[in-house]
Each structure stands twice: as C-alpha cells, then as structure tokens.
From TrEMBL:
Protein's name in the database: Stress-activated protein kinase JNK
Subcellular location: Cytoplasm
Record-linked SUPFAM superfamilies: Protein kinase-like (PK-like)
Family affiliation: Belongs to the protein kinase superfamily. CMGC Ser/Thr protein kinase family. MAP kinase subfamily.
Any one biological process term the GO annotation gives: rhythmic process
Co-factor requirement: Mg(2+)
A Pfam cross-reference name: Pkinase
PROSITE patterns hit by this protein: MAPK, PROTEIN_KINASE_DOM, PROTEIN_KINASE_ST
Entries under PANTHER family matching the protein: MITOGEN-ACTIVATED PROTEIN KINASE
EC number assigned by the record: 2.7.11.24
Function noted in UniProt: Responds to activation by environmental stress and pro-inflammatory cytokines by phosphorylating a number of transcription factors, and thus regulates transcriptional activity.
Gene3D superfamilies assigned to the protein according to its UniProt record, in alphabetical order: Phosphorylase Kinase, domain 1 (3.30.200.20), Transferase(Phosphotransferase) domain 1 (1.10.510.10)
C-alpha cells in the first residue's frame, strides 16, 4: 500500500510480509528477505528505507513485519499491456539483467522473477523486488525445491533437477516473451501441464538432456508424446515486435535471437546473465558502472545453514531491525533512495 513518510515528506510503498511467523520456513524466509534487502546496493534492486515503526515491540510480540520502500509507478504486469518500442523494451531488459548480475555476483539467485516482482517508474527506471525466495549459493548445483510462480519456472526446476544461477535467465526469457506477446508464454495449470506447454512450443529435448534426469522422471518424459516444436520465427514473428527503424540499431531479429538463447530447455546451453548483457539487443545501454557494480556484502554468511525455532528467528529479525534503525539514525544506509524533487 501507499503511505506518507513524514520524516522524508514523500510517499512510500509499504509491504506487509505474509504471515512471517506462521512456521519456521516462513520465519526463515522473512529473515532471508530482510538480510538480503539490507545488503543490496544497486539502482535496479529495490532497497528498504526503513522497517516497521521506530518504536518496536519485544521480539516475542512481533506478529507481523512491514518493509517501507521507495514508491514506484507500476509493476511490469501493467507495462506488459503497453505497446513498447525497441528502445524501451531493450532498456527495461537491460536493467533487469543488471539487477540480476548484481545478485549473482554475490552468489544470490533470485528464484522468483515474475512481472509482479518487477516495478517501474514512468521514466523507465526499473527495480527488482521480493527477495523472500532468493538463495545464497556457493558454486555448484542447488537441489532445494522451491515454490515459484509456475509460469516462469525453469525446466530444471519442473523436472526436479539441480539448478544454478541461469535459472533466473529462463524467467527473464518468459517475461520478455510476455512483453512481446502481451500474454503468458507457458500458462500451465500444474507441474505436468507446465512441462507440456514448454515442449509443445520448444520441442522435446534431446536424448543428451534426458539422460541427465533421474530414472523415474526420465521414464515419464520419454513416455510423453514427442513434439518437434516451432522455430522462434514462428513463435515470435516480426509482427509481434515494434517496427524496425533506420534510426535505431535495435531490430526484431536481435530481440528474437536473445529470446532463443534465454529460452533453452537445457540449462547447460542457456545463456548466462553476463552473456545476455553483451547481446546486441542489450549492450547498446552497457555502462560498466551499472554492470560491474561491487557485489553486495551479505552480513550473515551462514544464512542458509541456519535452522531455528520461530521464536529464535524472531530474535534474529529483531536484531536486524535494530541494526537497520541504528544505521538509519547514522545516515549510513547503503542504497537508500534519494529524496524526490
């Protein structure tokens, strides 16, 4: 919701965390989101201005928690309904990728990228929000299952495989396709239907990919009807894109090529965020200060290893809130939005 911050004399957005202390999983998710939002320091990631009221109850009484953030004009769900020219489409994608690159540089995988988690201003400034499902990970594959919005779920997650950072790139590809088509690319009703929607359009993957699946999943996939899929020229014909212009370097063929590199079923052959930022449809905006920004410093390096009771999670969150308020008073908030006007 929207409220007035009388300390800064400007409107702000307020996010109420959904049942943060319902159980240990929800409490850990609330703690993770708070820690990660405190550490991010990039123009394309939503940072918190403050947390809850300045007069805080003891941790045992905390039933809810609110995050106060910079107010934006719309989320991407609304932008998707607009007719965007190549410059705006490309620039929005560039900012998405910059924000993701910043997270990945610290070993953070967002894991829940979707239009409702991306907000924009009328000047095309874009920010990524909602770090509740983000995970910090060392090198190698993550095996932990998670519940992300089905439509943007990568094949390796649908099929119960290990996943790594470019799981976020699949989601960006789905979002880009939605911005071009003005409708969801893979609108599956459940896990099985989601996989069917993917292979109906992109084709049944190769035997090389199928051999990476565990036996029971491989048997199921191999017993499904085989699909040849469609070329990206048929999936995304020129008529879906803004008209090419002699005054612009950006072309429909470039946008389609980028889609074809992000929407790859086999994650080992999918483009990385670094490669996407170098793609001709994106690199016209390339600014080293934005792309190579210093990685966020995660204050709790053992975040993912922690296991606590709900009351212990409350105590940890309470300490993080007090730390944030102390930093607020000292004006040392990294990434604090500058006042408007």
């Amino acid at each position: 919701c929207i409220s007035m911050n009388y300390l800064s004399d400007r409107n702000v957005a307020i996010k109420k965390l959904s049942r943060p202390f319902q159980n240990q999983t929800h409490a850990k998710r609330a703690y993770r989101e708070l820690v990660l939002m405190k550490c991010v320091n990039h123009k394309n990631e939503h940072v918190i201005a403050t947390i809850s009221p300045h007069t805080l109850p003891p941790p045992t009484l905390c039933a809810t928690r609110y995050l106060v953030m910079e107010l934006m004009d719309a989320n991407l769900c609304q932008v998707i309904q607009m007719e965007l020219d190549h410059e705006r489409l490309s620039y929005l994608l560039y900012q998405m990728l910059c924000g993701i690159k910043h997270l990945h540089s610290a070993g953070i995988i967002h894991r829940d990228l979707k239009p409702s988690n991306i907000v924009v201003k009328s000047d095309c400034t874009l920010k990524i929000l909602d770090f509740g499902l983000a995970r910090t990970a060392a090198t190698g594959l993550l095996m932990t299952p998670y519940v992300v919005t089905r439509y943007y779920r990568a094949p390796e997650v649908i099929l119960g495989m290990g996943y790594q950072a470019n799981v976020d790139i699949w989601s960006v590809g789905c979002i880009m396709a939605e911005m071009v088509r003005h409708k969801i690319l893979f609108p599956g009703r459940d896990y099985i239907d989601q996989w069917n929607k993917v292979i109906e359009q992109l084709g049944t993957p190769s035997q090389e990919f199928l051999m990476k699946l565990n036996q029971s999943v491989r048997t199921y996939v191999e017993n499904r009807p085989r699909y040849a899929g469609y070329s990206f020229e048929k999936l995304f014909p020129d008529v879906l894109f803004p008209p090419d212009s002699e005054h612009s370097k950006l072309k429909a063929s470039q946008a389609r090529d980028l889609l074809s590199k992000m929407l790859v079923i086999d994650a080992s052959k999918r483009i990385s965020v670094e490669e996407a930022l170098q793609h001709p449809y994106i690199n016209v905006w390339y600014d080293p200060a934005e792309v190579e920004a210093p990685p966020p410093l995660i204050s709790d390096q053992k975040l993912e290893e922690r296991e606590h009771t709900v009351e212990e999670w409350k105590e940890l969150i309470y300490k993080e809130v007090l730390d944030w308020e102390e930093r607020t008073k000292s004006n040392v908030i990294r990434g604090q939005p500058t006042p408007l006007g």
